[in-house]
């Protein structure tokens, strides 16, 4: 079968299965989730063996060590996949939630019902545990999923697929509910993102290159997580101990996550007091500082001069851009202009400034006196997340079960007609 | 200036203005809406004179009489535009609404704030009153708008634009808040839908051809209203008097609207009882019936034999496709397969069947014992609507002020850091 025909058959199976999973009750979906978890644990050795094939190929192909690391599946990885599925089973089921019923003047009673999106296509790179996560989130939210993992994880993903299908069958659900593509042909991705009749939304997870390419090609709506260029702004009226703790945590808690601070903005009135103390702590941890001229005036030449590009960069590394600003206005403007609308925080004790920051910073998460590292599905109480959206429509920020649903209108009448 | 440069300058002005309008308080936005309404009423004669130029050109170019009608602006049209703006002013302001604040285990307090989308591009055809409506809805919801009306309404739209800008200035808002394109070059549309840096969402309003073209070209999310192939299903357990009233109203209240029924499905157990009565009433009103074989067995050869195409067609005319079905399952499957996910209704007194229809029919509006004609922003209490979405993500069904906003996450902390 050629790729076009294969993808058409996948799309048709997904559309048909989406009706079955949309109707499934919560118990049936949870039974499937637990059955998949059981199968994964039982097949742990098989999964690790399949993964070994991928790892050997990756090393042979000279994949970067960091990527090889992300690809590796251990017994602990399998346990955490299974645990993730059990946590999804424990989350409340959003499907069918009804809200906001009120009578309209015509006598109809109008409300909303939360419903699955239908068929969700997920395109991701290297990490095989995404396969289990994504399958679980789509299943619980009543969607059919078409998963396209990286070619470097092909054997691992097929082994996980076998467990997923066993779990679906055990719960009496069709195999079309979760399909993991059996091809690594690039044309399959193009087909997937251009089948609006069979796919309702695409979630790409991966590097900026992948996401930009998908967004360009897609003829289906995309929920995308482009990048996280997050800021902390230390205001003139900040509590400097809180500022120190937050700015340090937001940068150094983990370097490779999208909610890590990449640029620090400091009001000029407190720059002299807070920057030397912070710089010491950053340098202790091996963080390179790149600063504006005023930052370098305070901290000296150990700070590299920042270029225009630094303000735009998601380092994902122990590097931090630092800028001294004259005002809250300048900070807000800088963030809206150079940030990625992901997560930004102000440190201040000033009521009015905190309100302005919350309202005017155009980001998916805006914070007062808290570390940007909190922008995360688990910290927000969503459970697992399918990604963190930097889009503005549908869902912003961490996307959990609710982000994989939408609301339809329900009208309950007694024979009403339009006059 | 070439079209590319012109559109870039429009996009930049819109992005800058979007920050100002997002910050504007409700009073300021309402002042602008009333000032625009005042200017429209004062300039009524000017608008009608500008419209006369468009009408003369339309007639000269042999535009269809129905389209010439839609293009015409009378004193009553101007009054209804002004009244529409005053109604938008009277609606609650969704911007800044905060909800769902709860403490998380880490001690952060997490909630959501409703915020504008940013810059909304609206592309529409002939009817000049859309210009005032769309400007008003975007303004009230805190968005900057870029409006591209049909070339056949160019003079009318420019005259309305002058009033809009006068109203914005009177309220101290920048002109960039509502820009009405001063070119009819097709390349301007292509530029508008491919500027993700300056435009956050596109709303196309018009025929299927326009919307399909925009969706194909767009590199920006699109909220689209593709078409309305709406169904009424008369169940075996329907109250036949309600069924008669609803089926008649849903088809004949107005023929040209998207929430008009285009296909009638009737359970075989009641087809013999209800169809002859309904057919009489339809024929009295000049509605042509196209039926399946069983329908023709009951109603005779006056009913044209329906082809496969009839089940897919939005007639927007006094034509109705009629099908006798064996079961609720067949009805639901027919609607999900052939409908357009717009609005579908069941007539039944059966509790369990009503629940299944509501849950399983995958449409933006699902109704029990009410006419599909209720699917409308005014009937739903949203006030004016920017369109009726047949998409599944973001907003389904009538899109009012809330559909032009999204929610961001707000984190209120006291110095919390991730452990």
Automatic annotation (TrEMBL), chains A, B:
Enzymatic class: oxidoreductase
Pathway involvement of the protein, from the record: Amino-acid biosynthesis; L-proline biosynthesis; L-glutamate 5-semialdehyde from L-glutamate: step 2/2
Similarity comment text for this entry: Belongs to the gamma-glutamyl phosphate reductase family.
Enzyme Commission number(s): 1.2.1.41
Pfam families reported for this sequence: Aldedh (PF00171)
Keywords, comma-separated and alphabetical: Amino-acid biosynthesis, Cytoplasm, NADP, Oxidoreductase, Proline biosynthesis
Domain of life of the organism encoding this protein: Bacteria
Function of the molecule: Catalyzes the NADPH-dependent reduction of L-glutamate 5-phosphate into L-glutamate 5-semialdehyde and phosphate. The product spontaneously undergoes cyclization to form 1-pyrroline-5-carboxylate.
Molecular function terms from GO: glutamate-5-semialdehyde dehydrogenase activity
Reaction catalysis annotation: L-glutamate 5-semialdehyde + phosphate + NADP(+) = L-glutamyl 5-phosphate + NADPH + H(+)
Main location: cytoplasm
Residues annotated as domain Aldehyde dehydrogenase: 12-282, 307-376
The protein's name: Gamma-glutamyl phosphate reductase
Cell compartments where the protein resides: Cytoplasm
InterPro entries, A to Z: Ald_DH/histidinol_DH, Ald_DH_C, Ald_DH_N, Aldehyde_DH_dom, G-glutamylP_reductase_CS, Glu-5-SA_DH, GPR_dom
Cross-referenced HAMAP family: ProA
